[in-house]
Give the backbone structure.
Amino acid sequence: MDQIEERPQYLLTDMVKYFLKLGATGFGGPVALVGYMHRDLVETRKWISADEYKEGLVLSQLAPGPLAAQLGIYLGYVHYGIVGATLTGLAFIIPSFIMVVLLGMAYQLYGGLAWMQAVFYGVSAAVIGIIAVSAYKLTIKSVSKFEFGAIKSNWLLWLFYVTMAFVTAVKQSESVLLFVVLATIYMVIKAPPAWMKSPRAVSVLLLSGVGFWTFEISKLGQIAWFFTKAGAFVFGSGLAIVPFLHAGVVTEYGWLTENQFVDAVAVAMITPGPVVITVAFIGYLVAGFPGACIAALATFLPCYLFTVLPAPYFKKIAKNKSIKAFVDGITAAVIGALVGAVIVIASRSIIDIPTALIAAGAAGLLIYVKKMQELSIIGIAALLGLVVKTCFL
C-alpha cells in the first residue's frame, strides 16, 4: 500500500506571501537568500523538511541559472506542484523587478548614480556580515557543527566543503563538474549502488528620458537571445552571471559603458531579491520597459524549466540510499562554494577600515540582537555609507 503523503501545514497563499516579502526585503544576494529560506521555512515555520530543502539546494546548484530563484521555485513545487512553483517564482522576482525598473527610470532621468554609490559603499559591507552569518548557519546544519568529534566523523564532507570554498574563492566562479565528481566519490564510499559493486562496473566507472518606451525592435531580439543564453548556460549563484553579462553587454554588443555596467551591478546589490535581477536594469537601459521585461523573462524562464521539469523525478530518486549519499556529498560541496562566494564578495566590498567595521557590526547585530531584522541593518548601513562618503572620503 502506498504511503499517504503528509498534508502541508500551510496554504499556497501563505507561501506566496512569504516569497513576496522575501523578494521585497531580502538583501544580501544568493548566499543570504538561501540562508533566509532555510531559517524561515525549515527552522521557524517548519513548512519544508530539512531533506526537501537539501534536495532543492542540490537541484538548484546542478541546473544552470540563478541559485536563489531556482530554490524558491523548487520549494513552491514541493507541496503544490507546477502552480506552486510558478506562483512562488513570480512572487519572488516581481518586487525586485519593479524596483530596478523604477531605478532605471531615475538613472535615465538624472544621468548617474553618485548617491547610490555612497549607499552601496555601506550596504555592500553590511551584506558581507549578513551572508557570512547565513553561510555559517548553513554549514552547521548541512555539514556538521564546529566541534572536533563532529568534524572527525564527517571529515570527508569537510574535505569537500573546504575544497569547493578554496576553488570558488580562487577561480571566482563555481564548477558544476567538480560538484558532481565530489558527490560521486562520496556516494561510492558511503553507499555504492548495487551495479557498482561488480568488477566490470567499477572498471567502466573509472574510464568515464526615462526611456520607458524608447527602444529599437532589432535590439529586442538580441536582448532575448543573449539573456536566454545567460539563463540557460551560466551555472552557480548570482555572482557567476556577472562576467558573462559583462562580456556581452559591454564588450560584444557595446550596449553599456564600463561605468554603467558597474552601476547596474550596484543596483542589484542594493535592492532586495535575486542579484540576477540586474538583467532587468540592463534591459531597461538598452531598450526601455520592453527591454527590461524581455531580459528578465529570458533569464528566468530557463531556470524555471530546469527546476520544474526534473523536480518530480528528483524527489522520487532522492530517497534511495546511494542518491542520498550523493546529495550529502554535493551539499557539502555546494555550501563550500557559497562560502567561497562570500570570500569573493568580501574581497570587493571590504576596501577600508569603515567597511570592515560595518561588516563586523552587521554580523554582530545578527548574532547578538535576536530581534534585529536584516532590513533594519541594511537601512543603518546605507545611512552610514552616505555619512562616511560625504563627510570623510
Q: What stands out?
A: The chain has a mean pLDDT of 79. The longest helix spans residues 67-110.
